[in-house]
Amino acid sequence: MEDKKLVQLSQQGNQEAFSQLVKKYQRKVFNLALSLAQNKDIADDLAQEAFIKVYFALPKFKFKSKFSTWLYRITINVIKDYLRKKERLSRIPQELIQVNPFLEGDEITIRKKEKTTEIKRKIVHYFIDQLPEKYQTILVLRDIHGFSYQEISKILKISPGTVDSRLFRARKKLRQKIEPYLRQKGGKHGL
Amino acid sequence: MGCKKFEKLIIQSLDSELQDWQRDSLEDHLQKCPSCRDKKKEYLTIYNILKEEKAVEPKAYFWPRLQAKIKTREQTSFWPYVRQWSIKIISASLLFALLLALIIAFFTPQRPAELSQSEELLLRNQNPVEEASQLLKEEGIENQNMMIIFSAMEAKNSSRRYYP
Questions:
Q1: Are B62 and A22 inside 8 Å of each other by CB?
Q2: Which residues of B touch A22 (CB under 8 A)?
């Protein structure tokens, strides 16, 4: 059944229709939360909170946008609230910098490729976490989840031009933050 | 074009197609500029790490857990219901009040309009100007006045005096 019909049924109090909407989008919503929170338990809480907000706001949904766009907007707002409140790590965790996985060398060959990729991912996320919240959000929406510029503009309620310029600044700032780490040789470097 | 403008093209090239002239001039510049080559490599490294992130399955029993939370919130929170139903309740009350007013107006018996003396006489099949015509038949003005006074006293209205 298509989203519009499911939403209409949910608005009439049909729990089965709402459960179908949840099952359809839970993976995407959870992964959006996970990309920004970097913790499965917190991401689970945030995803559930987003769906609870959607459930209670459904009677007010007037189909001015696609249901998915509206759902992602609510999810992003729930995540933003969390990001504003949470404390940021002041230093990169030691276990991530004992061996620099970005540099090819002897150290890298002794580790499995999968683990190296995971460490790289964690490092990039550590630096994303240091960015202002608006840059974190746009990087996650575009570079991790592959939303189009048009979709991002609708989710964040900003013009496509602003999406373009904000994304440019976000990528630039992220590279600037990671740059010293990317260019250092050897492991066990602080930042 | 300086390195700053080429950096913009490098970032743009990550997820969108450049125009032919932009791609050519960027390639030319990258061959000459090692700093921009490094930057491009770094941007690509970061972009690929993010792009290749694998989606993870949510924790088990997502919907049953969500359903339980929604029920708890519904029980503890009265206001969402109030908000949800307030508009419907207000509109229904207004409609009910309007209907009630219409019913009352329709079934209330109307008071008969007060009839004038002439109308009463006409209803009784009597001539309303008979009194006046008798007055005019009197010869003297005094007699006419006296007749008016007597009829006004009968009607308890002294203002019906005749002024020639």
A1: yes
A2: 62-63, 66
Cα dist from A46 to A11, A127, A137, A173, B69, whole Å:
23, 21, 15, 27, 13
Report the percentage of chain A scoring pLDDT > 70. 83
For chain B, the residue count is 164
End-to-end CA distance of chain A: 52
Model ipTM?
A: 0.82
* Helices B141-154 + B130-137 axis angle, to 10: 150
Q: Are B62 and A124 within 8 A, CB to CB?
A: no
B80-135 tens-digit pLDDT: 566 667 788 888 999 999 999 999 988 887 766 677 777 788 888 888 777 777 76
pLDDT tens digits for range A76-130: 999 999 988 887 666 666 666 666 666 655 555 655 677 778 888 888 999 999 9
Domain count, chain A: 2
Are the C-beta atoms of residues A140 and A191 closer than 8 Å to each other?
Answer: no
**Which of A86, A104, A134 is the last residue before a domain boundary?**
A86
> Distance (Å, rounded) from C-alpha A26 to C-alpha A51?
9
CATH number of the domain within which A68 lies: 1.10.1740.10
For residue B9, the chain A residues in CB contact (below 8 A) are none
| Cβ contact, residue pair B69, A52, below 8 Å | yes
Provide the shortest C-alpha distance from residue B105 to chain A (in Å): 37
- Percentage of chain B beyond pLDDT 70 is 84
Residue A120, domain CATH: 1.10.10.10
Query: Which residue, of A86, A112, A131, is where some domain finishes?
Result: A86
Scanning every residue of chain A, which has its alpha carbon at the shortest distance from the alpha carbon of B7?
A172
Domain of A77 in residue numbering reads as 1-86
